[in-house]
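To illustrate the input format used throughout this study, we show a single complete record. The first block contains the structure-token representation of the backbone; no residue identities are included at this stage. The design step must infer an amino acid for every position from geometry alone.
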């Protein structure tokens, strides 16, 4: 989808129906795990995580879309938190190595054409001992995994979301340690945590 004001508004309209049902609760669980620190939220989108920002967070919010960033900035205007908005791509982050204490993403790695490169970049910009926190839909194990895999490619062609990636395995491949995952929805939606 092209980077337009319409695309950003359409995203908010679509997510508006899903947020109160489940996703807002999952976002809250993710952000409860974020300690006070210098944080990179990669793929900030239209700022749907903004309600969970705290005054003890210093956040850099990155997205490849200027229109999504504008909506995210509008959402945060009354929040008592320091946020810097940056246009850029997670596969080629415009930050020096060892910059952030935490990196946080929400449903980003299901969309990237090269998720491993994105994870390598997040690892690069994390300080030693820094924390990676991801909220993702992933490929479940067993029969459910086969079913999800069978619909993943057509869904990706339609929506740009790959719902059958083994994101935890990619996190390990990118060189992170202490990788853990917590299932939120029958092993399809998980919070994945790891350290540099």
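Output of the design step:
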């Amino acid at each position: 989808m092209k980077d337009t004001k319409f695309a950003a508004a359409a995203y908010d309209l679509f997510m508006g129906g899903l947020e109160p049902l489940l996703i807002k609760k999952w976002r809250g669980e993710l952000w409860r795990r974020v300690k006070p620190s210098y944080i990179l939220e990669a793929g900030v989108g239209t700022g749907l995580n903004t309600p969970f920002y705290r005054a003890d967070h210093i956040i850099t919010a990155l997205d490849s879309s200027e229109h999504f960033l504008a909506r995210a900035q509008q959402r945060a205007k009354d929040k008592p938190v320091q946020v810097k908005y940056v246009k850029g791509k997670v596969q080629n982050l415009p930050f020096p190595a060892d910059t952030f204490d935490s990196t946080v993403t929400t449903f980003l790695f299901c969309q990237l054409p090269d998720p491993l490169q994105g994870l390598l970049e997040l690892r690069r910009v994390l300080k030693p001992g820094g924390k990676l926190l991801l909220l993702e839909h992933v490929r479940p194990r067993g029969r459910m995994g086969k079913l999800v895999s069978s619909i993943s490619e057509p869904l990706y062609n339609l929506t740009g979301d790959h719902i059958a990636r083994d994101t935890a395995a990619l996190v390990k491949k990118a060189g992170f340690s202490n990788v853990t995952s917590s299932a939120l929805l029958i092993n399809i939606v998980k919070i994945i945590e790891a350290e540099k």
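Structural context for interpreting the output: The longest strand covers residues 126-137. The mean pLDDT is 84.
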